[in-house]
Write a structure and sequence with these properties.
Elements lengths: L1 H8 L3 H17 L3 H24 L3 E4 L13 E4 L5 H13 L5 E5 L8 E6 L3 E6 L9 H21 L7 H9 L9 H14 L21
Parallel strand pairs: 1-2, 2-3
Antiparallel strand pairs: 3-4, 4-5
Helix pairs in contact: 1-2, 2-3, 3-7, 5-7, 6-7
Length: 221
Amino acid sequence: MEEASQLLTSGQYLASALWSRSALMLARSENDFGRMKRICMPMLEAQRYLRQNALDSGIIHTIARSTDIPEMPGDECFLFAPNFVGADALRFRNAAHDAGIAPFVLTREPTTSKNQWPIVGVAERVVRVRIEPPEHDTPNPKWFSRAAEQLGDQAITDAMAAGEPDDPPAWLVDDFLDRLDASPEHEKFIMALADACANAVGHPIPTRKRRRGLIDDPYSF
């Protein structure tokens, strides 16, 4: 957490975001929900910069085949289109991060019968929202930002609806973590995760196993 904060202060935003995520998972393994809440703040700030930097580039790559991926990708926006799926986009983003690159990545699935584009994010759980396509099916930064915002809003809704009223507060934290990689740039999602962590502080650690429905998503895995 301290390293992530120092990296944020020195302007190393991608490294800060990745260190924050590692710290978040380490704190979760120790049931330290108070520290998790604090870690969310540098993570949010780092992700905010990465998101805005990609949007400010004004470049949106539509990736419909492997040859559409630039040899040297930059900190830009990437929309993966059919026949790619959400898992492909996640692998691309992870590989880019390993190379020190911070792309802003979304995936769209085939157009629906109502002429909508399903936008999908893949993590431990899949998040999907159906939205209106951009004019002439050509995304611009404003549309890209709005699509990502709607995906993140759906991720919050899905996490909040995943459990039962009598679930331990720690399980809601895990329901958010299950979807973190689906929309990592979404500020309200990270804030909702921080709130869930704060709510879990001081509660007994669950002794029963958390159970959620099976994932059945042929389009994203």
